[in-house]
Queue: 3 jobs
Job 1
Amino acid sequence: MRETVAEADRPVMLYSIGKDSAVMLHLARKAFHPSPLPFPLLHVDTTWKFKAMYALRDKVAADPAIKLIVYKNPEAESKGINPFDHGPVHTDMWKTEGLKQALDTYGFDAAFGGARRDEEKSRAKERVFSFRDRNHRWDPKRQRPELWSLYNVRKAKGESIRVFPLSNWTELDIWQYILREKIEIVPLYFAAERPTVERDGLILMVDDERFPLDGEAAVMRKVRFRTLGCYPLSGAVESEAATVEEIVAEMLLTTTSERQGRVIDKDAGSASMEKKKQEGYF
Amino acid sequence: MSRPLESDRDLIRTDVRAWLAEQEAKELLRFITCGSVDDGKSTLIGRLLYESKQIFDDQLAALESDSKRHGTQGERIDFALLVDGLSAEREQGITIDVAYRFFSSAKRKFIVADTPGHEQYTRNMVTGASTADLAVLLVDARKGVLTQTRRHSYLAQLVGIRRFVLAINKMDLVDYDQGAFDAICADYRAFASRIGIEDWAAIPVSGLNGDNVMGRSEATSWYTGPSLLEHLDAVPLDAAADAAKPFRMPVQWVNRPDQNFRGFSGQIAAGAIGPGAEVRVLPSGRVTRIDKVVTMNGELDAAVAGESVTLTLADEVDCSRGDVIVAASDPPEVSDQFEATLVWMADEELLPGRGYWMKLGTQSVTVMVQQPKYEINVNTLEHLAAQSLALNAIGVVEIATDREIVFEPYGVEGSSPNRALGGFILIDKLTNATVACGMLHFALRRALNVHRQHLDVSRETHATIKGQKPAVLWFTGLSGAGKSTIANLVEKKLAARGRHTFLLDGDNIRHGLNRDLGFTEADRIENIRRVGEVARLMADAGLIVMTAFISPFRAERHMVRRMLPEGEFIEVFVDTPLAEAEKRDVKGLYAKARAGELKNFTGIDSPYEAPENAEIHIDTTKLSADEAADLIVEQLLKRR
């Protein structure tokens, strides 16, 4: 993070409100203490996040030492793009396009993201400093070799770099750190009675009245979320775990991997994340 | 998220906090795996992940279906598919980049850099090895030690890896035969001793069946050593060695929230530090003490290698990004010319003489690379003559940086490599691509353990006391052109105006300081370098210095120009045509040179390179010496 701030012109931290973002933000505060954060946070909003996520975001943004920018793709907004009617177009327009627009609008040339190499196979080869061309495209053949802890932050005007400070963290590292540093995370990670319905084998939470129920009644289930995104796309798991320790214990003793609850990866088989990255998805 | 070891599950159920505390205490070992395409490397790593229960049921289900679709093992699980990531390489059936995997044992966490075996991907292997403590070399039991095995050993050793595991794989295909294993060990032993690898162990394994991967196998009852994982659990770590070295912290960022706080943020590269410790800021050399070690979780009494901290200093000293804070009593060297090993990583070849960006620690400088002394054939380790270095070539070169940098030799016998201050990358100035990595051997100039002493009375103070702006008037021209005569007049005129001056005359200097030098090209260059250094010292003292030397070569005049602050070097070209100078021949030297009694005489049998953009151009065929002197004084004094 310090290398990026020292060498980039306009760095920004992508803030998704999830647990990895929370850890990344905490690390940033540590890296620059006692100075305030030398870059703003950017939330690329889809208008479909959980209410509890917006609540935590606004709480974080209330800190005078933090500047938060919220960006919504105006085209997606005007067309009313949503996950129920538009399928994969929802993620593409709100997130992928929205992110590109936000970076271009503000002229950010380096963006921190919370992705980790242990999440997914194509992430395992991702660089810590991931170079993107003028069109935000990721070319696996043009990535720079990273030796020792030396990062090449140089780039031409218009090009940008995505920086992944948590590259070498595992999910267990994240939870251990949240526990040790007492980092506040969205309560949705902890089990509670929530109104839910089942769709295509996933338990989805009915977070607001936009969820089309067609007369079906939401069922109260004790659930929690392993990953958080747009609420209609985030599958819940039934759980009793109400503390970080219980989550860790439950998670370690279960047998499904983290991204399982996400609809997004399944679009085009197992190579889908790589394809999304080439198109500019974070 | 990966699953815990089976043995841990009870503890997690009963006391997850205790289990988490155990996890935090685990050490981290980073290692690389290298082998050729068919050695079964991906299968072995997949097996390590599988056997240490690092695979979830859903991943296993995906693996089973993938195995049927893309796999090479028929109906059996193809563990390699757990490891190969990008779709392009699935199609090609080879690994094309460095991938990082994570797993843990009861004792340690591991990060595995999975590096490919193909010859054209040397750069990826070097990348993966740069952060590793240990290398696992895959050898196919049927094929034995191959050229690639030797190449990978050499490359790993080149980037400072000292510990090796020879994983002799596919033992199942040679019926777990001890003779085959022993023969390969003997072969490798001979090679290892030749290139100086001392710490290596051979383990007979089968990635496909899991023999000697986690536990010891019945099938190799003749083998009494540890399993692969047992061995990885036991090897010493480089981190411990780094912590025992003298303190070094490259400054990443100056932390200045307001007027009341000024700290220096960085990651400690070596040693330990605490409040009160005496430190030196390099390259300036200023000595001070640590005031506080600041972190968001409070001030620390001590911090060691690997920790990221912010230091405040007892005195207000100049210190910025790129400087290095070091133990005052045991500082590293500072230099601007080095010998280094380069690994070329770009499609465009090295261009000797071109300027590249060099990043070493947090220092970024321009560097010029000389034509390689030699290239190393990684297969035979022969030294070859080379004009340049192409993709994946390794060579030994001399490099020169445009300013002094703080460094340590990369490789240290018997200790961990100095990665932070010995390893560097080169960046193309046009494309911004990382084109090479390198490891510094040593500084080319001697006496570099002499550190610059910080002086409290600065050159500005010296100049202010004298009420003048220092300058070096560098008179250049042929022998007999009139340099000394005009310089002498200029000094008289300046002295009359109360200016503090000094005239360094070529002939006089050759009677004293430079009496050991002759007139060969090398000696003439050294002559000018010394005069340049003396002139600079005098300018530092606030004087207006005049030098009268033929100084025939542009490169040396340029060298002196670069020793001085911008605007202080004033080149005065005393332009007298050769015929005119020879006609005057005040000292009778031209006659001697023409008669062959004087060798290397400028203008006769040694060239004079006239200045192209001299600040002052005196045409002696038009101006008298006195007029020339007036012109120079006027030009000098109107300077701001």
Note: Residues 186-265 of chain A form one domain.
Job 2
Amino acid sequence: MPGTVQSIERAAAILRMLAGGTGRLGLGEIAKSLDLAKGTTHGILRTLQHVGFVEQDRVSGRYQLGAALLHLGTSYLDINELRSRSINWADPLAARSGEAVRIGTVLEGRVLVVHHVFRPDDTFQTLDIGTLLPLHATALGKVLLAYRSALPPAELERFTRRTVVSPRELAAALEQVRLAGWGAEIEELTLGEAAIAAPIRGYGGLVVGAIGVSGLVERMCDTRYRPHPRLVGYVRDAARAVSRDLGAARH
Amino acid sequence: MTERYVVAIDQGTTSTRCIVFDRRGQLVSLAQQEHKQHFPRPGWVEHDAAEIWRNVERLGPLALNRAGITTEQVAAVGIANQRETTVLWDRHTGVPVGRAIVWQDTRTDALVNALLAAPGADEVQERCGLPLATYFSGPRMSWMLDHTPGLRERAERGEVLFGTMETWLIWNLTGGLHVTDVTNASRTMLLDVRSLRWSPQACEFFGIPPAMLPEVRASVAVFGTAEAAFPGVRIGAALGDQQAALFGQTCFTPGEAKCTYGTGSFLLLNTGTELVRSTHGLLTTVAYQLAGEPAQYALEGSIAITGSLVQWFRDQLELIASAPEIETLARTVSDNGGCYIVPAFSGLYAPHWRSEARGVIVGLTSYITKGHLARAVLEATAWQTREVVDAMNANSGLTLKTLKVDGGMTADNLLMQFIADVLDVPVVRPLASETVSLGAAYAAGLAVGYWPDLEDLRRNWHRAAQWMPAMDPVLRDREYDNWRRAVERTFDWIKPA
């Protein structure tokens, strides 16, 4: 068995203390109780604060458990925060690719569109923020499934002849997404349309959403029916830029 | 050939950003740093100008580094800045005299009231195109000269210099060039808005020694070459941030308008080379001037508090952890529950110009939750926009057909929909919400020939999002009436001393 990581043990001890104590605790009290150096304790508290597991009172400077701990099972990143943080990178993606951009997260077994940038050709288009899309039949959804942001639905609904409806085929497609670092959908939801998506990561590399472009299949794919590498590059660059802004380490 | 870029410095109220743009006007890299807000007394807001310069010095190289480029690949740098914020510094040492007084600061309230009654007040307001208000730099300089021992004597000897932020930054970038541009100068109350020269009458009225004032130049022109931050790069433009946003939205034709949603919000309507006098509480301001060409003017509706109301809700009430969460909280309820917030924190700007007004929350009942308050916070921005658009329509005789928007708050989908609803016109966001920076970049690039002409810039503009009005007109009228009644309740709160 590999050795344990000491700082994680210490972090767990601090969380137990804060959970068991009455109200907020000061840095000195925590360090003393655990027989740790103040500097070490402060470093751990700062890290726990960064990930939202601990909060510090502005006035007294004392620590308590953070709200994020209470919502461990649900998405930790507010969807409006995600839109706000990605808007600067979604625009250049639309400009470079010439296609519409969408950002999705998971809501109740489907993809929730949290941001949408029009295809930059000034034609009439309608904002579809708030729309729900199927996970298994979209590039955004497959990326979210591949990184375990959601479980595949029990029943895979067919939308076109090319929709992946067998669980085994879907598992293979998701494995492909993990290997490549991006996913595609080619006429799987709507005939004549294709999309490319890549994961958006938060701290620690956790996938919190997906960003992608979509458009007519003849613009998105080459003659061999495969997504243009140029477009894939743009999507992955944008995903990395948003991830960097959200505090993910480089991948 | 190596690809070349243009860099914008956006020196804003809460932060400074350096952004690298490519030839299509797309953002390549960004570096940003907030600076400290000093609130020494109620109504006072100050910045440390030296801290802001240090940030620019650090952010410039950082932005280039993130883009993977060197200064040789930068065609020009352009500046967009928070307007009216006033910096004084020593000509010989370059050290600021005290802290910069920020545009939101209302310490000149009593002074402004006294000046309103002074002889010549009407002529000065007519000459500079602005109403006498705490918002502008002239009264602020006057206050600083009166309240700093020995300062007036030093200023008269030419030892102390005045600048708004672009002047301060160009001074530091070039190692001692003391210049401003027409848009920033038009916000001091010291500029004759027709001749575009400092007005001797206005200087005398405010008691400002002319030796303190920078040289006024066109906005789109080579000001000089940077020695610090971007050594060897030409400074191609300086514009007040709102004028920069108008430029970034490519509103080059009379009748085109934009509204930028940031700390405050500012609706500017291009009126061309024609100077339009406001009769409805709007400001007459210079939109931009290309070197060697006549200035373009604009009518402006300024709203002091919009995004900063969300910040207040986050930092002072602590009801949300981050600004975007206001939308999440607002969506927990379906309407405002009868509650309205009028954020007259430093009085009301356009179209009311009531410095004695203070904020109110009205319609409170035991039914109201923090969700309703969040709605009221967002709705306040929309209704304030409606008031300004009504004034603009009445003043210009034109009717606004669509509203071009930009700024950080355009990421708030609920707010953008509500603005479309209360204005009853489509709201359109361009494919670059960083239009303040983009405008500075466009102007600088234009000055050095990186872009050939205004038409070329216009071709870069594309629609990224559009919100269509969908509100029942009866409901809209009733809500607007409630809003106006709430606004009336802010008036006359501060009693004359």
Note: The longest helix of chain B spans residues 370-396.
Job 3
Amino acid sequence: MGVINVSSSDQEATVVISDKGTAYGAATSLTLLNLNDISLTNTQGTFRYQTLDSQSEAVVTTVATNSVALNLVIDTDQFFGDGANASPIVNKGLFGTSNDKTEVDFRIYFNGDTDVVGVTQKHIDGTGFITGLTPAVNPGSPLWVTPVTIEVNGELTEGTVDV
Amino acid sequence: MAYRSTILTQLQTDLASGNISVSTELPYTAGSDSLNIKNMKTLYLDQDNETITQAEQFLDNGSVDQKETTINAYLSVDAKNPPADLDTRLASIQNAKSSVSNVFVRECETTTEIESDILTYTFEYRFVTI
């Protein structure tokens, strides 16, 4: 039991996006750089109904809507791809993958992607589409920044870093 | 290069004629009076003051730093009998901020203070770079 503190250099919150079905291998993945923040949304759909024998509505859950939202400062290679890699996601980067509507696997490490002895390190995985890119810059803040949304296709699953 | 020398070079050009001049000396205090009080109608430019802060913080413990540089300049004139070209010279002093390049913020704030019959202008140049 305990809070998840990501301020330690070996327990950083990390997002990896990977070519679909490639098990997050280093050669087919991008570990996103310059992340400002990450938000994971797991919203259950609900259906409310009323009955004559109750003064309050009842509710049942329906299907969930899942998504990941994050903000980052753009790294050229990661945003536009290196243009010369066998891995589609490394080749095309975030923009090309979004523009091509290519489905990707993603993994969010809550506190580090390398096993730290004595620390429980969880991750959540899923598959989805990159969307919501809105690169912006202005004279008072002269670095390109963009939000990124991953619209999740299907279930989220949880796992634990090497135990 | 320190921004002081860039601004100083610009001010030496802009104030080459007229009733206001610029000194290469720092605005130190000689005796009981600061130099700008002792030598009125002469502008004194202080040293660069630098502050480094984090413009962006990342979850991987990285950051993008920005450097803010401020430089103060001081000018005193006779409040009862200011130079005829004072407004023109004040504009030149403020516009000297434009001589600094490769920064994304360049500002000059002017404040005034009257003590006895001496009107003192304080100019704060501010520059920010990534």
Note: The two ends of chain A are 17 Å apart (CA to CA).
